[in-house]
Amino acid sequence: MSDDYQIDIPPSFFAVYTDARQRLCEPIAIVRARYELCEDLATHLIEQARLLHHVAVPSEDEILHRCRDGLLTVESGVSAAEATWVVRRLAELLNWRCPAFADVQELVQRQ
């Protein structure tokens, strides 16, 4: 049986699902499905981020932090690592500089 999957998953997304020995922690079918979801989410957030930038929040950095904060909630349906990847991808799609993000563990400890 051939693998007819046509979408190239970038190394940055594979890193979300790779352990210290560079092996996938999930089956490739799950990684593919999660990639498609995260890529769609980043694309979906483009217009919202642009609107915020022109109407309410002048700082690209602040907008990206707010997006990540929203994605870090349980209701978002993405993991913390996926949330960070989505926002980095969003910054790339918008051609914005991506800010450094605090480690998720650090955020949990502050709460």
Q: Your description of this structure?
A:
This is ATPase with chaperone activity. It comes from Variovorax humicola. α2 packs across α4 (80-94) and α3 runs antiparallel to α4. The protein is mainly alpha-helical and 111 residues long. The protein has helices spanning 11-14, 28-55, 60-71, 80-94, 104-110. It has one domain. The protein is 59% helix and 0% strand.
When the domains are counted, the total is 1
Distance between the termini: 49 Å
Strand content: under 5%
By DSSP (H or I, 4+ residues per run), the number of helices equals 5
**Beta strands, count:** 0
Q: Strand pairing plus helix content: what structural class?
A: mainly alpha
The secondary-structure element order is HHHHH
Main β sheet profile: none
**What average pLDDT do the residues reach?**
88
Ranges with pLDDT <50 over ≥5 residues?
105-111
What percentage of residues falls in helices of 4 or more residues?
A: 55-70%
Form type:
globular
Rg over C-alpha atoms, rounded to the nearest angstrom: 15 Å
Key phrases:
disordered C terminus, 0% strand, 59% helix, globular, 111 residues
Which helices and strands occur, and which strands form pairs?
Blueprint (H helix, E strand, L loop, with lengths): L10 H4 L13 H28 L4 H12 L8 H15 L9 H7 L1
Helix pairs in contact: 2-3, 2-4, 3-4
